[in-house]
Specification:
The chain is mainly beta. It has 5 helices and 13 strands.
Length: 294
């Protein structure tokens, strides 16, 4: 199963709370990026939110709960990363984060804290097996609408923390997510190592929109892997945890190599859905990529 393809269904908000250790001191003039971008940048780069555009390819292998009998998978994907800031407005996309393009406004900024108001889209989204909170979701017909929210980023010594809240902006399900992230990086010569840990809460409304099964659908859909068919299922609130270790290496001024290993817990409220054949409680992945920075 190849879960890694660019598509226009969206898993908005900050991906399974990718949480970070990012060692750096940042100037009050900087606008906070997505924490997945901050963590992979060295101190000087992180303090300067330079405009840039990056294209690349990645190869991924992993294992996760699935809608089929095979839980192991592999695939290739396109990386599209960019950031552009104008006064306090910004647009950014960082494929490794798992969500799509973010449009935002920097509402507050001082030496240690930055508050952004955000709209998350599905543009240029790369759907990962576990950074999205519903592995195998591309097998469903539903897609998540736009979300609005905010993220608060703090620079505490050698650590970075980021808190985010996102809410459905279209009224399709009125679901909410909350995430907390903390992280740090370590510079060893030209190798930038980083660690990530995090937690994300997803509301029952959001979970049920994706993996819930109504009585009508249970009666009309064939679940061949369940003897006697499936019962209706209503998903509840869920909490997931994630850990990430990775490294970034600039091969030249324009070419960048990255490698990342990630482990994410998948809550029972998700995998108890009749949609899932393999109901693993943990998703793992390892990805490598090569990108060109324009």
């Amino acid at each position: 199963m190849n879960n890694l393809k660019i598509k226009k269904s969206l898993i908005s908000c900050l991906p399974l709370a990718v949480i970070i250790f990012a060692g750096a001191s940042f100037s009050s003039a900087s606008v906070a990026n997505d924490i997945t971008q901050i963590i992979r940048s060295d101190n000087e780069q992180a303090s300067n939110t330079e405009n840039y555009f990056e294209l690349g390819l990645e190869y991924v292998v992993g294992s996760s709960p699935s809608f089929g009998y095979e839980s192991n998978w592999k695939g290739t994907g396109l990386i599209i990363n960019f950031s552009y800031n104008w006064n306090d407005l910004f647009v950014e996309n960082y494929s490794e984060s798992g969500h799509g393009t973010i449009l935002g406004y920097n509402a507050f900024n001082n030496d240690n804290w930055s508050l952004d108001l955000t709209v998350t889209t599905n543009w240029f989204q790369s759907n990962y097996e576990n950074t999205g909170r519903y592995p195998g979701l591309n097998n469903l017909d539903s897609s998540e609408p736009l979300t609005v929210g905010g993220r608060l980023t703090g620079y505490l010594g050698n650590n970075v923390v980021q808190f985010a809240i996102n809410q459905d902006a279209t009224g399709d399900h009125n679901g909410t997510t909350l995430s907390a992230l903390i992280g740090r990086n370590w510079q060893v010569r030209n190798w930038n190592f980083h660690g990530i840990v995090g937690v994300e809460y997803a509301s029952a409304k959001l979970n049920n929109y994706y993996v819930g099964v109504s009585e009508t659908r249970a009666a009309s859909t064939r679940f061949d892997f369940i003897e006697g068919g499936a019962n209706a299922y209503e998903a509840g609130d869920s909490v997931s945890f994630s850990t990430e270790l990775g490294v970034t290496y600039p091969i030249t001024q324009d070419w960048v190599f990255r490698a990342t290993g990630r482990v994410v817990t998948i809550a029972d409220e998700i995998t108890d859905s009749p949609y899932y054949v393999t109901k693993d409680s943990v998703a793992t992945s390892f990805r490598t990529s090569l990108s060109y920075v324009f």
